Amino acid sequence: MRKKIVAGNWKMNTTVPEGVELAKAVVAKSADVPADVKLIIATPATHLVPVAEVVKGSAVGLSAENCADKEKGAYTGEISAAMVASTGAEYTILGHSERRQYYGETDAKLVEKTKLALANNLGVILCVGETLEEREAGKHFDVVKAQTVNVLANFTAQDMKNIIIAYEPVWAIGTGKTATAEQAEEIHAYIRNVLAEQFDAQVAEDTTILYGGSCKPSNAKELFAKPDIDGGLIGGAALKADDFIAIAQSY
Ligand code: PEP
Fold this sequence. Notes:
Elements: E1 4-9, H1 16-29, E2 37-42, H2 48-55, E3 61-64, H3 81-86, E4 91-94, H4 97-102, H5 107-119, E5 123-128, H6 132-136, H7 140-152, E6 163-167, H8 181-198, H9 201-206, E7 209-212, H10 217-224, E8 231-234, H11 241-248
Parallel strand pairs: 1-2, 1-8, 2-3, 3-4, 4-5, 5-6, 6-7, 7-8
The structure holds phosphoenolpyruvate.
């Protein structure tokens, strides 16, 4: 049975004190979420150590938003997977479209990042998704397949136990434009077929696939009702504890 997950991606928002307060609010309200829905918060790297203290002993998981594609050494400004793991975080997001778009995150780099994250016992939330231009050109299936396979071809069925996929159509991120539940389900089911081809039917069945892109309390229920949508990666709405919790309660 695959896990249901609602993960919040705070991006480059909140100062450390604000982030600690937000994490405390999420932890305080987490008991209101169905027990089979796992909450994860992904915070800026500066927040991981104090937020790890806040979530300690609760059911709320902690994630980084990125990690380096190198193990250690002379890479000024980078944060390694081992460093992330040493904060108490258990996951890292990788391949978010904002990193692909603004920071040159390639599939090749994502292979290295994923290897290092897994080697350091971090679960990986691997983001894939097409741009508006790609969707309008009818290339969305091919783009999502390539992003998925280019990275996952380097990993085993065993590794997949620690990899979550997040389908995030770029045109829906932060735009207020959500994919319809049907559009999202179509791609989620397709990704599951890609996993069955790449690995086997069991991996396809067991992998959690999240939807991300302007997911909010008003549309989460319809999205999460779809059989291949196992939860959400939430950006803007994760910055308000009440909205984030309301989304998780949509199950
Ligand atoms: C995201 O950045 O992962 C995201 C889904 O953002 P938003 O919910 O704000 O569209």
